[in-house]
Amino acid sequence: MAPATRASLDQKLAMAKRCSHEGVVAGAKAAVVAGFAAAVPTLASVRILPWARYNLNPTAQALIVSTAAGMSYFIVADKTVLAAARKNSFKDAYPGNISA
Q1: Labelling 4: which of 39, 43, 61, 80 has CA 20 to 30 A away?
Q2: Which residues contact 69 (CB under 8 A, 6 or more apart)?
Q3: Cβ neighbourhood burial of 80 (10 Å; 0-12, 13-18, 19+)
Q4: How far apart are CA 100 and CA 88, in angstroms?
């Protein structure tokens, strides 16, 4: 195996930063969508259903919405980073194959 050069290490670091940034952006988009998707039925049920009105205080409502948003952020960000890493690893394994 050839020794790593400064240029190749810089290239790998730049690729890692780009992949992690893609994951953060995709995760943030998913968190916003999931937050709205969880907030609408939660707030509607608190206004309509008597059980939810008495048992779900504002802290519980916020916990429901933030849990959904947080889970979607981490799941989507992780899948995006792994997909980018897999794509880049195939690109390195097969240099002649451009469309991976």
Answers
A1: 80
A2: 31, 32, 34, 35, 38
A3: buried
A4: 8
pLDDT per residue, tens digit, the chain (100 aa), is 556 788 888 888 888 888 889 999 999 999 999 999 999 999 999 999 999 999 999 999 999 999 999 999 999 999 999 998 888 777 665 555 555 4
Q: Residue type for 82, please?
A: L
Instruction: Round to whole Å and give the CA distance between 70 and 34.
Output: 9
Locus of tokens 């097969």: 94
The token pair that represents 5 in the structure block: 């050069």
Which amino acid belongs to residue 24? V
Contacts of 8 (CB under 8 A, 6+ apart): none
Sequence-separated (6 or more) residues with CB below 8 Å from residue 91: 97, 98, 100
